[in-house]
Automatic annotation (TrEMBL):
Its EC number is 3.6.1.22. This is NAD(+) diphosphatase. Belongs to the Nudix hydrolase family. NudC subfamily. Signal peptide: none annotated. One of its GO terms (molecular function) is hydrolase activity. Keywords: Hydrolase, Magnesium, Metal-binding, NAD. Residues 119-243 form the Nudix hydrolase domain. Its cofactor is Zn(2+); Mg(2+).
Length: 257
């Protein structure tokens, strides 16, 4: 008889949960990704043409951010990233042979040349920029049709320090120079596999000049007159609250898993 496991079952960027937003129990399959070994938790994609089981629903992962605690969300985030990584590494990037999953590690191994492929995260810097004691720079993403204003963010380039990435992204996106770049905290972000590294920096010089394909508007806002900001649970929200209300960005009270 098969044993039952809690399962993260994804369909694109949605997760299958019950009416209380908890994970279902399922029979394990040989193709499951074993996850969090201590608790017998598995992860898989909803099979092609598989109907949604009675009593379960597909919920966007972003929505779970607001319903779950950080630890639960980070587990789901880890599960989807590992599944995506496995799907995208079916072949050896060195010789092109079909790969096999390592029996105990998160690695895809090539049986022909023994090349090992491991999951990688993309470091991405996100910066909250202040001017004086009472102003914060917020920017509207050109691709986002809502009225939400967020923070300056972008990928770290090869050979660049995190601080250089902060200065470069700020200059490219809004034409400003910043100083006193300081690290705040980090958050894994599964869209698709980023590690968001949060910094704060102070305005140094320059006039706002938008990189129009990325940013449709950017302004320094008074702390008591902010526009719509990113949703609670995102690191951008925590960073803005850190400036406006002095809340810590990282929750250091969390228990280690
Ligand atoms: Zn190979």
């Amino acid at each position: 008889m098969s044993e039952l496991s809690l399962a993260y079952i994804f369909h694109q960027h949605q997760l299958l949960v019950d009416e209380n937003f908890q994970l279902p129990q399922v029979e394990r399959l040989a193709s499951d990704l074993h996850f969090n070994t201590g608790d017998q938790v598995v992860a898989r994609d909803l099979l092609e043409d598989e109907p949604i089981p009675q009593g379960l629903q597909l919920v966007p992962i972003r929505q779970l951010l607001t319903l779950w605690d950080t630890r639960q969300f980070e587990h789901a985030s880890r599960a989807i990233q590992l599944l995506e990584w496995r799907k995208n590494h079916k072949f050896c990037s060195h010789c092109g042979h079909r790969t096999e999953a390592h029996p105990t590690e998160y690695a895809m191994i090539c049986p022909a040349c023994r090349y090992h492929q491991y999951p990688r995260v993309q470091p991405c810097v996100i910066t909250v920029i202040t001017r004086g004691d009472d102003e914060i720079l917020l920017a509207k993403n050109a691709k986002n049709k809502s009225n939400m204003y967020g923070l300056i963010a972008g990928f770290v380039e090869v050979g660049e320090t995190l601080e250089e990435a902060v200065r470069r992204e700020t200059f490219e996106e809004v034409g400003l120079k910043v100083k006193n770049v300081q690290y705040l905290a980090s958050q894994p972000w599964p869209f698709p596999s980023n590690l968001m590294l949060a910094f704060r920096a102070e305005y140094a010089s320059g006039e706002i000049k938008l990189q129009e394909e990325e940013i449709s508007d950017a302004q320094f806002f008074k702390l008591d007159q902010l526009p719509e900001i990113p949703f609670k649970g995102s690191i951008a929200y925590a960073m803005i609250k850190h400036i406006t209300e002095g809340h810590p960005v990282a929750d250091d009270t969390r228990e280690w898993l």
